[in-house]
Design a protein that fits this description.
One of its GO terms (biological process) is cell division. It is a single chain. The protein is of the alpha+beta class. About 25% of the residues lie in helices and about 25% in strands. The chain has helices at about 1-15, 40, 50-55; strands spanning about 20, 25, 30-35, 65-70, 80-85. Strands 1, 2, 3, 4 and 5 form a five-stranded antiparallel β-sheet that branches. The termini are far apart.
């Protein structure tokens, strides 16, 4: 049992080491990048962009609506996210 506790503690520690950038935007989307520690980054699929449930299962915490939209090939531990900004109404 102590081994399980140690693994759980390690997972918790790793999740605390997830880095979230400040948000930035253009006229259409709000963006942010998330940097994962190596032990979590190795769980990122290499074949596809992740669904919201997949990245949440890795421990990434963000509000609903963020989309993993691009694979950052030079550094796979960096996840790139975006979500649409609300449409501005014309007067």
């Amino acid at each position: 049992m102590p081994e399980l506790a140690a693994q759980a503690d390690g997972a918790i520690t790793s999740h605390k080491q997830i880095y979230y950038s400040d948000k930035y935007d253009n006229e259409e989307f709000e963006y942010r990048h998330v940097m994962l520690p190596k032990d979590i980054a190795k769980l990122v699929p290499k074949t596809h962009l992740m669904s919201e449930s997949e990245w949440k299962n890795l421990g990434v915490k963000q509000s609903e609506g963020w989309v993993h939209y691009m694979i950052h090939e030079p550094e796979r531990p960096i996840l790139l996210f975006r979500h649409p900004l609300p449409k501005k109404t014309k007067k």
